[in-house]
Amino acid sequence: MTDRALSVVRSGALTTVQDEGRPGHAHLGVPRSGALDPPAAALANRLVGNPAQAAVLETTLDGCALRPRSAVVVAVTGAPCPVTVDGRPAAWGAPVHVPAGALLDVGSARAGLRSYVAVSGGVAVEPVLGSRSTDLLSGLGPAPLTDGTVLPVGRPGVHHARVDVVPHVAPPSELVLRVTPGPRDDWFTASALRILTTCPYRVSSASNRIGLRTDGPSLERAVSGELPSEGLVLGAVQVPPDGRPVVFLADHPTTGGYPVIAVVRGADLPAAAQAVPGTPVRFMLVRRR
Q1: Looking at residues 227-241, what average pLDDT do you find?
Q2: pTM for this predicted structure
Q3: DSSP letter, residue 44
Q4: Cα–Cα nearest to 73, from 55, 95, 56
Q5: CB 133 within 8 A of CB 30
Q6: Alpha helix (H) ranges present in the chain?
Q7: What does the pLDDT read at residue 224?
């Protein structure tokens, strides 16, 4: 039995293994998946000396607790939260040495939704289609963590970063999503795009890794017929029958039959990963160049 491993003592509400995902397999019906907040995941890897593509843990709401079998360096980024080692306070957003057998506890998010835990050497579960990411839609990759799970850890490479402070984007108090109209904006009434980009919405509690659902005004369709299933991209704003827009995130389906009224700019999606239910959402219209 290898000593390069983590034992999961507390798995939390939803903790999954994530990396940069599985781009390039949409034609096979495989979503991209990967960390919902890529900058936060990349920062955690950088702090412990991992390459950007190393797998990390993505926690949701209430963190997790881990016990390494050998000494490791960890870093927690993303949603700010308390971090302790054997009950003693440790740094968030900085490299932390965790001795063999000590208990690393990543607590509940004080703001935002998802924290990222990187460990020196990376989480070394077996890759599927080139990625170690858990995909909640297709079921590819490792299952979400449960208490008692043992995760293999790779051998560390370079020394961890030596910094006093790290860049950190605070979780949004208002989520501003820049959208480009189309490809099916012509399936909606003339007022629908105006309503989408001028009326207030809020993040729904039904949101997940597949999509950010919203509460707010319904968007009225001009075409009542059925749309044949067509390809979907990351950030697509699909409008289901209830008329309330859904922003597709990393685990989104690769095809769908409801019309897409607009697409969110990719640079705005990491903030969506940290938007808690009830966060105001504003869609801002950006025309094609």
Answers
A1: 94
A2: 0.94
A3: H
A4: 95
A5: no
A6: 38-48, 190-198, 269-273
A7: 85
